[in-house]
Design a protein that fits this description.
about 300 residues; alpha/beta; two-stranded parallel sheet; binds nicotinamide-adenine-dinucleotide; SDR family NAD(P)-dependent oxidoreductase; oxidoreductase activity
Length: about 300
């Protein structure tokens, strides 16, 4: 899709971060926007931002939990009814969890997969018929740099983001075969300055292994946030205009992609070595922890 003017875009997780930046930039480009989030105050702020920069576009909001299948399908029907058509769905809503696999409760695992994976599936399936009916559509699913490589303490997040990648790459190939006027892009942001660390869940299982405590874990997470949400949204929209299959955001995402390609299994030893080095700084008492892990690739 070369031009967003007079198209209709639906955006999940529009109440903060990249979702908000996407809504504002799409509206500035003359695109009508339908926004959802479970955070009503955040949504109201985004709506005000959109109205300020683009008073003439049609903008609607809905409080929707993307993990709720019926709610997402009802929202898609409402967007198509209220806006007359839908051209783009940005399945952007997401959350983070820091926990070892051993220390992970099934409730936390179900929570993160419900939002990060099932939320993307719900948004894709609910909007796809409308995108096809529009004659010119695009599905934009947000994975992560953690859909390209894995890290200790990120097993659930990794699982959700690798799943989004596989799901969306397969979808793109199906759409290419169908030649139905709809395309799909997978987005892999590196560290982006948003609220995601503040809203993340941190399990005590990472204390002493990776960080000192939850507060320090969130602070360390935020140190990797090097790209603004505005810049990220610009890169995503340029990727959609160019009909890219994969969009990487930030130099860290390019570095991670190169590492995963060059050392598809051996990169894990590098990550473990770096995690040990970091732990010595952050948790000096843990220096005596076991030095060997299963490095065999
Ligand atoms: N910030 C980063 O460094 C980074 C890196 C890679 C990928 N991502 C991904 O980018 C996407 C956007 O995140 P962000 O960084 O802008 O974070 P953010 O926390 O600023 O925004 C995420 C939004 O999603 C909403 N949300 C969470 N659960 C929801 C649910 N069940 N239903 C509806 N809305 C829900 C939140 O309320 C919030 O408004 C996420 O999928 C995230 O995993 C972020």
């Amino acid at each position: 899709m070369k031009d967003f003017r007079n198209r209709v875009a639906a955006i999940t997780g529009a109440g903060s971060g990249m979702g908000r930046a996407l809504a504002v930039q799409l509206a500035q480009a003359g695109c009508h926007v339908a926004m959802c989030d479970r955070d009503e105050a955040g949504l109201a702020q985004t709506l005000a931002d959109v109205r300020r920069v683009a008073p003439d576009v049609r903008a609607t909001i809905a409080c929707v939990d993307v993990a709720d299948r019926a709610a997402v399908h009802a929202w898609a029907d409402a967007v198509a009814r209220d806006h007359g058509r839908v051209n783009l769905i940005f399945n952007n809503a997401g959350v983070a969890l820091s926990s070892t696999v051993e220390g992970m409760g099934y409730d936390d695992l179900e929570w993160i997969l419900g939002i990060n994976f099932w939320g993307v599936v719900h948004g894709t399936k609910a909007f796809l018929p409308y995108l096809k009916a529009s004659g010119e559509g695009h599905v934009v699913n947000t994975s992560s740099v953690f859909g390209l490589f894995a890290q200790p303490g990120m097993g659930a997040y990794n699982a959700s983001k690798y799943a989004v990648r596989g799901f969306t790459e397969s979808l793109r190939q199906e759409l290419d075969l169908m030649q139905c006027g709809v395309s799909a892009t997978t987005v892999h942001p590196g560290g982006i300055k948003t609220n995601i660390a503040r809203s993340s869940r941190v399990s005590p299982s990472v204390n002493g292994l990776l960080v000192r405590d939850a507060q320090q874990g969130r602070e360390e997470f935020e140190k990797f946030f090097i790209t603004s949400a505005d810049k990220a949204a610009r890169v995503i929209l340029a990727g959609v205009r160019a009909n890219k299959r994969r969009v990487l955001i930030g130099p860290d995402a390019y570095a991670a992609d190169a590492m995963a390609r060059l050392l598809p299994a051996a990169y894990q030893s590098l990550v473990v070595r770096e995690a040990r080095r970091k732990r010595k700084q952050l948790v000096p008492d843990a220096a005596a922890a076991p030095a060997r892990t299963g490095d065999a690739a």
